[in-house]
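User: Hey, quick favor. My workstation is busy. Could you predict this chain's structure for me?
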Amino acid sequence: MRSTRVLTRKWPDQPHWEFDAVRLGVDALGHWVGVPTGTWLSKPDKGFTAWADHVVLLPHDAWWVATIYGTDPDRPVDIYVDVTTPVAWTDDESEVRCVDLDLDVIRETDGRIWVDDEDEFELHQVQLGYPEGVIQAARVSCQEVFEAMANGEPPFDGSALRWIEKLRAAGR
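Assistant: No problem, here it is.
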C-alpha cells in the first residue's frame, strides 16, 4: 500500500502536526488513510508515537478532518474531528495539506460529545487574522460535525471500523 504524508498547518501556512499514513481507499465521503500503532506524529515543539491504530478521513470537500479510533482499549477518544480548511492534495497524492482552524469536535469513549478550543479560535481570529469567510465556514462546519456526530450519521456511525480492519489486515 502507498503512503501519504499528512501535513496540517496553522494559519496561514505555519507548521503544525504531520505524519505518514497508509493509503486505504476512497469512498463517497473522501480519502481514508490509516495510522498504525507506533507511527510517529509530530509538530515543531513536540511529538508522540501512536498508541492505538486509527484512521483519518480526508473529506472530498469539507471544512474538517476526522480521526476515528476503533475499539482498542488504549484509544484516547472514539472520534476527534479537527475543523480545517478543505484538504489539498499534491498531483501525485504523496502529500495532503490543510490548515487547522483550532475548533475540535470530540466524542469521548463514554459517548460524551463536546467542542474544544473555542477560546483558541476566538484568539486566533485576531492574532492570526482569519478572514471573515474562514471564520464563518469554521463555525458552520463545527456545528454540522457536532450534529452529525450526535445523530450518528456517517462517518460517525461506526461504519469507519471497516477501514480500521483494512489497516490491520494490511499490517499482517
